[in-house]
Amino acid sequence: MSTASAVSDTWIRRFHPAADRVPRLVALPHAGGSASFWFPLSAALKERVEVLGVQYPGRQDRRAEPLIDDIDTLAERITEALDPWLDERLPLILFGHSMGAVLGFEVARRLRVPPAALIASGRRAPDRQREERLHLLDDAGLAAELRSMSGTDASLLANDEVLQMVLPALRADYRAIETYRCTPGAPLECPITVLVGDRDPKVTMDEATAWRDHTNGAFALHTFTGGHFYLTDHQAAVTARITDAITAATGQG
Q: Which residues are the active-site residues?
């Protein structure tokens, strides 16, 4: 096995490998999340799109690996892992939720083959900063934040052993996204589609619309009812919007 393939196998999860040459959707999880979050999306899209779920270190089967608490470092490692998957004849779309949206943007800046599109969910534009210090909270405070976002099964959070497994990765991810500062640079050339919940405390409509400034391509904003994890309540509608964005960017999907 080549070094490049080994790196890719560590970072990339294919839940439903595609037999045909279909577009590839790279799905980047939220803070504290894992590649398995995207299994339902992969199942829904498997006939038209191959989903490549990104697995960050320090969780699930990578739990023994050191955590990475810096967005730029994460983006570099993900870009390296995606290199074997790049094919100028095969469209690749980046899709990230929350922290994953920023990572998608930073990976898009780094890829040697530009992505066909970027889909950013539940996150303000990269240059829209807030002073957030959740990564400095104690474990109880961090657990309370996790519960308030409703992105994790409440029964799992009631299990102290499970909670202690989740919190280190969550804290590292919060440190990464809260200390991130967008470096000025040329806008992307690919279209950007933004998906957001209308009651998301992490994103205002103005902050979501500001993604428009980060592309020379087309821009679209779609709003759903709900909070930060609106997408778990609107799986079919979100899948449809993702399919629409892929079709508009590639003519496929």
A: 98
Query: How many domains does the chain contain in total?
Result: 1
Predicted confidence at residue 156, as pLDDT, reads 53
Distance CA 137, CA 152 (A): 19
Check if the beta carbon of residue 54 is closer than 8 Å to that of residue 26: yes
Residue stretches of the chain with pLDDT short of 50: 1-2, 154
Q: Which structural domain range is residue 244 located in?
A: 3-130+184-250
Q: What is the CATH number of the domain that holds 47?
A: 3.40.50.1820
What is the reported pLDDT for 185? Answer: 94
DSSP letter string over 173-235? HHHHHHS--PPP-PPBSS-EEEEEETT-TT--HHHHHGGGGGBSS-EEEEEESSSTTGGGT-H
